[in-house]
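Narrative of activities, Objective 1.

The group set out to show that a structural description can be obtained from nothing but a protein's sequence at a throughput compatible with the screening campaign. Below is one input-output pair from the validation batch, recorded exactly as produced.
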Amino acid sequence: MEEEEEEVPRRRQLPDSNARYRDRSFWDSRYQDEGAAPAEWFGGLERFREQLEAELSPGDRILVLGCGNSALSYNLFQLGYTDITSIDYSPICIASVRDRYAHCPGLHWAVMDAQALTFVDGSFDVVLEKGTLDSMMVEETDPWNVSSEARVLLDQVLTEVSRVLRPGGRFISITFAQPHFRKRHYAQPAYGWSVQYATYGSGFHYFIYVMRKGEELSPSDLALGQSLHLPPRTPPPVRYLQDPDSENFLSAIDLIHHAKGRTG
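Output recorded for this entry:
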């Protein structure tokens, strides 16, 4: 695989509060400053290539949600996946990456909100996201007791993902969220998929969730999904480990300092 050329971006613009990670104007400003110079959350493709490629097939039509200025779409193109559509709700971001990768005819770019995809039903073999759902959850300080606003937001996105996946398609979510927190959001019967996960990284584990459209949830996953709708619980707090991520995104989010749970 031909690696995307390393660049040293300007000092990264960080928000004055975590809520700004959900603000389109913040991202527009940051992408205006950074351009399309590659920046990665949770590491570049080589850190999880083996797990990801196990779920991909030649000729897959792939949709990348919230692509930002990650080189992931380009790296997959270099591996031979040549039908990749990448979306982001920042027009400045999309203009930058479209210009940077104009020499790659199989890469397609669109300004679009993941909550309201404009593609027809069953358009894609694979939908892929890396850190996009995490950015939607940044105001959640207790992952055991997620706000109704966050639950609705994730449900809107996941409903759209399920809709645009063909039967047998895969939704792949790369995140720092542990299974007992995130899996219950994915394990909802309405989406019509099964849920599995793998990990990568050392010291701090990241998670790759794979949802397969048309497969049934296991009884244990179904029960876990139902727990999302139960009254709040208050488990004892446990400190998270931290990872020296290039974005240091984990340190920037209040969730890491206040969340309750155990690192996998």
